[in-house]
Design a protein that fits this description.
about 250 residues; alpha/beta; 3 domains; 6 helices; about 30% helix
Length: about 250
Amino acid sequence: MKDNKLVRFFNSVNFSIDHTVFFEEATLKEVLLDKKNNKMTLVIEMDNLIPIEVFKELCEKSKTLKGADKVRFKFLIKNNNKLFIEYFNYYFDILLENCPMLKCVERDKIVYDNNKIVVEVLNKAEKKKIESLSERIIIFLSDMGFDDVDISAYINDEARKKFKEELLCSQEIIDNKETKKIIKGSAIIGEVSQIKSLITNEVDVVLIAFVFGINAKSTQSGWHIINLKISDYTDSIMANIFTKKEDELAYL
């Protein structure tokens, strides 16, 4: 490598020497320090963008840098006509961890036209969510050296109508089936609420949702506290379970 400043940085975070070959002609143009947030930004100029796996390792190793809580990379790329979809999917996966509503988005229905992205959704809530995240996605892709990035979402009315018909059909099948015995818990009584309508902590709320994350800890007094991350695709929320029963902890 020709740039000694990059070499020193890579050595300080123990970056894989096998991956430094992708930075052979790279130049560290600028180092920006955000003292208020203890954040460092490295501006790197190079001919071609590094493979996504190399970028992942770079981000992971940079977490070990002493003196900065976070390291951000901004690439100035001369020939940036590749890897756009790979980097978009990488960042989309990061957003997905904290926003389960995005699981509704079918990746094969996303249309790419150069650096323009069009996301197909089924309802207004999904469209609004994509629009609310678009600025963050654009900033990330711009940092990766992609110019004129644009993101939009549209509701596929035909697919939405078909989805509703399938949902109604499924409901009819359920209604016609003989009621089964409850495997776990008590009978559910009451109207179903949407998570987005919940404003404060509430009890005895009925939700139809799925669990996308779980965490548990025990106290010295014998209580087990179980945190469930749940979503119904309108929003997500944390639900807490308090129990002293070992079998309930094991079941969850």
